[in-house]
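#structure-requests
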Amino acid sequence: MRLPNFFLIGAPKAGTTALHSCLTQHPDVFMSRVKEPLYFAFPEEPPVLPGPGGTYWRRAAIWRPRDYARLFAGVRGESAVGEASPLYIRSSVAAHRIRRNIPGSRVVALLRQPAERAYSSYMFMRQHGIEPEPTFARALEDEERRLGAGWFSGLFHRTNGLYHAQLSTWYDLFPREQIRVYFHEEWRETPGEVLRDLFRFLQVDERFEPSNPVRNPTLLPRSRRLHALATGPDLARGLGTALPRPALKALQGALGRLDSRFNLVPPPPLDPDFRAALTAYYRDDILKLQDLVDHDLSHWLEAA
């Protein structure tokens, strides 16, 4: 069974999808054909959770060893073999399982200013129809109840930004030289430098220059009904027996183009006062994090 030798562990909404895209382009790197297998977070079949999105882990996770092994059956001599599961950063189960099974693994994390990440997470879940609250403030007010009820962790927007608490487990389990932490602002402003350092860390050719398109942007629909018709099963259920399959596919394609070109728009920016208040919540964790990773994060504490 071929297993990965490095892991991109998150954080969600920090740029991991674009980084994953660059890694897949490198000739010396093999990335699993499923971007987020989530295998090490679930030693058994994932549970179905209460609340919105509660079936996601059950539907998405690859938890059987034989199925996980198949993700890497295509390795043909690449020296760096990896997978990217942003859930891992906040999963102590994943950290311990990876340490037990592949102790020499390299671990890569990409972090974003936590208030900005929380807002992006909220908007992303709204885009996909999972987040039920119509405002960011109300979602945060509801978070303690969600935690207590055991909801899908993608809806823990504030809690998921406590990076020091999450990364401490990884630093306890793995030697420091096997962990590399990057930051969203560096990735956004100097992607070439980040990639060259990452390729050196993975011991592959650092001269390779992949394309670096923006991936997985958060967009909100002006019309939720149009977005649901373009992306969900409603159209097929309603017209599946009335239209021939080719006509139904053509209609779905036309609606998808209409949705992406005219209906989806960037979300409004996070209110500066709200950002400041939420950053104050993270202050102690940020100060501990900068000591843990030996990187000055004072700019994260500044006003936007």
